[in-house]
Fold this sequence. Notes:
The structure is a homodimer of 462-residue chains.
Chain A: H1 3-13, E1 18-19, H2 22-25, E2 46-48, H3 53-66, E3 70-73, E4 90-93, E5 101-104, E6 109-113, H4 118-125, E7 131-132, H5 144-149, H6 157-160, E8 167-173, E9 179-183, H7 195-199, E10 208-215, E11 217-218, E12 222-230, H8 233-245, E13 252-257, H9 258-268, E14 279-287, H10 290-305, E15 311-315, H11 318-329, H12 331-336, E16 339-342, E17 345-346, H13 352-365, E18 372-375, E19 380-386, H14 396-409, H15 428-431, H16 434-447
Parallel strand pairs in A: 2-4, 3-4
Antiparallel strand pairs in A: 1-2, 5-6, 6-10, 7-11, 8-9, 8-10, 12-14, 12-15, 13-14, 13-18, 16-19, 17-19, 18-19
Helix pairs in contact in A: 8-10, 8-13, 13-14
Amino acid sequence: MNAGVVGTLRKLIGEDWVLDNLEQTKGYLYDQTEELIRPRAAEDSIVVKPGNTKEVSEILKYANEVKIPIVPRGGGTGLCGAAIPTKSSIILSDERLNKTIEVDELNLMVTCDAGVTLAALLEKLKEYDNLFFPVHPGDEGAHIGGMVVQNAGGAKAVRHGIMRNHIKGLEVVFPTGEITNLGGKLIKNNSGLDLLHLMIGSEGILGIVTKVILKLYPEPKYSGTLLVSFNNREDAIAVVPQILQRGIIPLAIEYMERDVALESAEHIGAKWPAVDGSVDVIIILSEDKEDTLYEKSEEIVEICDSNNAVYTSIAESAREQNTILAVRSNVYTAVKHNAVDGLDMAVPIGSIPDFMREIFRLADRYGAKTPSVGHAGDGNIHNFIMRENGEIPPYYEELKEEMYKTAVKYGGTITAEHGIGKTRVPNLALQLSHKEIELIKAIKKAFDPNGILNPGTVVNIE
Amino acid sequence: MNAGVVGTLRKLIGEDWVLDNLEQTKGYLYDQTEELIRPRAAEDSIVVKPGNTKEVSEILKYANEVKIPIVPRGGGTGLCGAAIPTKSSIILSDERLNKTIEVDELNLMVTCDAGVTLAALLEKLKEYDNLFFPVHPGDEGAHIGGMVVQNAGGAKAVRHGIMRNHIKGLEVVFPTGEITNLGGKLIKNNSGLDLLHLMIGSEGILGIVTKVILKLYPEPKYSGTLLVSFNNREDAIAVVPQILQRGIIPLAIEYMERDVALESAEHIGAKWPAVDGSVDVIIILSEDKEDTLYEKSEEIVEICDSNNAVYTSIAESAREQNTILAVRSNVYTAVKHNAVDGLDMAVPIGSIPDFMREIFRLADRYGAKTPSVGHAGDGNIHNFIMRENGEIPPYYEELKEEMYKTAVKYGGTITAEHGIGKTRVPNLALQLSHKEIELIKAIKKAFDPNGILNPGTVVNIE
């Protein structure tokens, strides 16, 4: 990066907060996208760490004037390369925007600076008796601002939905430098086209989020975790819609293949409690009353039994529950070193069994293994395409495209929660029409006339 | 309207479905906006009634080519003039797009044609044991498509949120004629900028909604209605955040002043059960278990007692409940004939008492009466500005603007659920920044380059 640019930025936000040395910047050049498919970073990118919203605005105004790309960066926990600067860029890290976590008990909301980590928010909420924020994408190093622009999901979407459902207000800096507050501590707000919702999931191409207002909830007092094993995928998957139709809305319904569970258990040095069967379903319940918890558990066991469950256990102690959840949480880390790509498709829940059957048939046709885990309760399954001899197998692109087409055929999506970022841009047209892509480009142009924000993300604009 | 236009449209969709005679069209020239502030309709507007999505597309292509405004119309139940053609227009009524109501029990979703009424949807759901759609804006003549583009709210938002929370998929025709499906039967979907959420609340300025996929829910089995009376507004309003903080999320918390309740009761020939006090709060609970219903009712009564409630009754019989709800539902109809404007502001729930105090002080300053009812549980209060001698009082615009400024000062909105439409366009800048209005205009331009869709709604574009 040009020394003049570095000098100007240092004048704007201070000597210490502009890094231009690769030793210092290299930790900012990647996110958690799988290594073999990770976009290549432009190593002459520099890092800026503004300390407040006004500095964010000044950086954007300057970058917009000299037309240098800005790549916004939160916790770097993303899985689609959105935070990787593929062109020589100014990486705008929100790590110093982490001072405020203001809990408003009266309104059941919290205002966070964008750079606050999920871990810090959860820690803060422990100071309160009964307050709960439901979205948990797995990695607590995620920044709240990043969770907004990636519209984070996670396991609890069955009951609580995704980030979008809980974001009430945003402070945003637009690429032309204007600082704007969208929404507020409001349950209802119909004043014009909803720019707040347009920002959610916008992956850093429309503006920089600097503050977030989130809804909080009273926390149910009792929770229990059921672990149920089956001899085959079909039986396991079939219980999901049956539970939901019975009017039981668990906190999470997770699907996990046994070989994946064992690998993850080994990875963290735990013992996986189930022996019989080859596929596990984890159902987490969270209820206000203990007897409701038992009644619902019994109903679920009944449903599983009538679907040929071969093993059922109800973990009530915190220790048992934690083991099961830790194994589930660590699947990604355990499998990742041997994976090319962790796909992120979703289909309507009623179509999961048929969809999964086709996915496995496709994998068989290519002689591929696709270990699978997922948030079955919301139709979102992560199928892994694995390495062969440590490398990307020759069929990878073709198999992935066939799988994506299968998801779309079932009315599904190529990405349920990880996002398009830079890695899925070539596949976007499998799901969206020409018109939708044209409108997305036009909106991008309206917000960011010089195209400085996160180029190459979501859509390629010439 | 030019005879050539009428002729072309008749060729496109059939002789019977194009009305150009004022006798036939006059019922299409207004919505439910209060009479004295209702925008004046262009009486030479014509009405088209396409029978399917393809015909909608053909009408739009033609209108876009000849640059004639299209005003989309659903049930005509709106309260902001969005459906009123203020320029000579083609009114596109979706009344014939009312064939499909497809309940998908497996996915707990329903697919409706846009012209299906809320009444028809609720009737259809009665055929099922345990399925529930929670949004109810009051008037069941509302069309589902209209409820989408107006992002309808209503009393149950405390627990279930608004239309936005339940819309999963849309079929949309863009002004340039393209038919596109946005979203689907999915809980999670992060594929690009979210055009689905941009369409929600877009008030007919971006495209025409022709089909809607909505989420359904299992219906809680037990419901009860509490009627609690207070001697003053402050005590009544203060219970709202206290109930929510206790972790009780009722289906609805409604605030109603006694004179309004009595007027509405008289209007429908019912007897209002409360005598003592001057302000009532109605709390509707809906629970899976009978004993939970009782426990929560008792907790609420306790909270109300400690806030100086002067009368409390728990209506359990369907008859008692229905009387209370009918009185609440009919407030609008009862008060309307004597009102100039039913405002629709919302503020953070914790600010309701202070906000209301200022609103009443403002009204006093102008010597105005402001009877008030509202969805107190979500911060949304409807304050009425009343007629004087049957006319708009001279202070109306000024008082309204002062009230709007007060809402904004408390972090609120000038319209929580009714929308900007045509009546609130002049006030939009009180809430939105110049930049937000500029972005809204740019998005409008991207979707509708010739500005044919619902001109004068949301933003004025020259």
